[in-house]
Amino acid sequence: MRIAVIPARGGSKRIPRKNIKLFHGKPMIAYSIEAAIASGCFDKIMVSTDDIEIAEIAQQYGAEVPFVRPADIADDHATTMDVIQHTIGWCESQNMAVDLLCCIYATAPFISPVDLANGLALVAVGDIDYAFSATSFAFPIQRAISLNENDSVQMLQPEHVNTRSQDLQDAYHDAGQFYWGKVSAFKAGRPFFSLSSKAILIPRKRVQDVDTLEDWEFAEALYAVMKG
User: Fold this and answer.
1) If you average pLDDT over residues 46-67, what whole number do you get?
2) What is the pLDDT of residue 76?
3) Which domain holds residue 182?
4) Residues of the signal sequence (predicted)?
């Protein structure tokens, strides 16, 4: 069995009610649920939440909410792995044989059903633990700078101050959309970022974290341009 798990707790601080806040006319979580349904990858699509309103909206858009997430993994310190492992434990208690699982973030309005299907294709047949969404950095990370306590500037990798951009290695980061994985890997708590993972590369124009109000405004503007 293949399942999707969408973590969506109710206590978001920086953007209150972020998971169900309207984004271009729909609750933010609806985009993740609809992409999961459209992908055709899943036998079940579950939302893990501690919030009644989120549960009701998730069900309206086609997801299942078969349990209430316990309070001890619904605070600011709960990790994605905590939520996934709890869901796996619940499935096992219901005698559900799950072999592949995809964690989909609730705040991923640019998620694509095609990317989800590509992730499944990798993790289902490959000798890997995980396949997750990633994108490239827009600027060479070897040229990154930091500020010290006096706000003076220093390079993080000063050895590359004179290296040509075309000679620097490309770098990528987690796109914050989804993580496909083998249930055995999730249960063991194996790290997402390792040689046992592969990346589904997504164009930067379809990647935007939504952690602050500024992020939200930028995501709305970007979505309007893409859909306009």
Assistant:
1) 98
2) 86
3) 2-136+171-227
4) none
CA distance 35 to 94: 26
Q: Calculate Rg over the CA atoms of the chain.
A: 19
The answer to whether residue 151 sits within a structural domain is no
The answer to whether the beta carbons of residues 27 and 61 sit under 8 Å apart is yes
- Which is nearest to 176 in space by CA: 104, 226, 118, 228? 104
Q: Is residue 68 part of a domain?
A: yes
Task: For 140-153, give one letter per residue: b (16+ CB within 10 A) or e.
Answer: bebeeeeeeeeeee
Comparing CA positions, the residue from 114, 84, 107, 98 lying closest to residue 179 is 84
Q: Answer whether residue 116 is part of any domain.
A: yes
pTM: 0.95
- Rounded to whole angstroms, the Cα distance separating 177 from 141 reads 22
Collapsing DSSP states into helix, strand and coil, what is residue 139? coil
Rounded Cα distance between 226 and 228, Å, is 6
pLDDT tens digits, 146-164 = 999 999 999 999 999 999 9
